[in-house]
Amino acid sequence: MSWLKAPVLLKSQESSNMEELVKQLLQANVQQQQTNTYFQQALDQQNQIQQEQLNAIKQALVRQPRDEEDRAQSAASARKAVQKTLLKMTADDDVEAYLTVFERIAEREHLPVDRWAEVVAPFLSGDPQKAYYDLSGVDAMDYTKLKGEILARLGVNTYVRAQRVHVWTFVEHQPARSQMHDLIHLVKKWLQPETLTSAQMLERVVLDKYLRSLPAKLQGWVGQGNPSTADQLVNMVKRYNASESLLHGTLSPRWDPKKSPENPAKAVSSSKEENVAMKGS
């Protein structure tokens, strides 16, 4: 009878295997559908991001002309306000003070810095006006270069600003607070704390003290060169010494910038030793 039961068992096993296979196929199908759904969602999300980016670019392109137009209108309005407030420069005006007033008006009215030169130019007169016309077209539109050229022609440099600080004196019958503000203004013009670092301001003070310790003739010559660093000042002193030596037919230096002016005896002693050595040779 066992041989009759074998086919039944075989069919039962085949049926069980088939059910397992069908079950695995169904699970694989479900997993595939889940995978397809995941990739579709990722693709839809990517398409959405790309569409949002595209919309943002379109909006920016549409908004850009409007922004430029708004800026142009704002600049035009600021320009009219500055022109309405600013007065024509006269021969009696302090040019540096006049430019400072213009800068404050321009900042108050939010005039773009790249428009400053073209706005102030029609209000200039005399040497400042000549300085504007003598600059190239590109430089004349740069306010920093225009201002630098104007002040250079008028001889206003770091040395002159320092001199204004040194010659300032208290006037007994004038308001004390007003005089303090005047002195602060002069010092700020000299040291320029808005643009210079602490180290640069310190160097400017040292340069001024060094320069004022030079002999009068040398001090005037170096001051005209307006050195801005210690190396520049020392090199100018060396050039002056070299030219003086050539003019007097001697190569011995008249003043050594590397030797401290506070210890002239050492320099004199050294010079005597050199002369003795030369005679002995």
Question: Topology of this structure?
Answer:
Layout lengths: L1 H84 L9 H14 L7 H5 L5 H9 L2 H4 L2 H11 L4 H10 L8 H16 L6 H15 L3 H10 L4 H18 L16 H17 L1
Summarize it.
With about 280 residues, this protein is an all-alpha fold.
Please give a structural write-up.
Helix content is 76%, strand content 0%. Helix 4 crosses helix 6, helix 7 runs antiparallel to helix 8 and helix 10 crosses helix 11. It contains twelve helices and no strands. The longest helix is centred in the N-terminal third of the chain and has 84 residues. By secondary structure, it is mostly helical. The relative contact order is 0.04. The C terminus is likely disordered.
Sum up the structure in keywords:
281 residues, disordered C terminus, SCAN box domain-containing protein, SCAN_sf, mainly alpha
The biggest sheet, with number of strands, parallel, antiparallel or mixed sense and barrel status, is: none
Oligomer: single chain
| SS summary, helix count | 12
Instruction: Kindly provide the radius of gyration, computed on alpha-carbon positions and rounded to a whole number of angstroms.
Output: 41 Å
Low-confidence stretches: 261-281
Mean pLDDT: 81
How many E strands? 0
End-to-end distance, in Å?
A: 141 Å
Which H/E pattern describes the elements?
HHHHHHHHHHHH
How would you sum up the global shape? elongated
Report strand %.
under 5%
**Helix amount:** over 70%
Structural classification: mainly alpha
Pfam families: SCAN
Region (Disordered): 249-281
InterPro entries: SCAN_dom, SCAN_sf
Domain SCAN box: 163-238
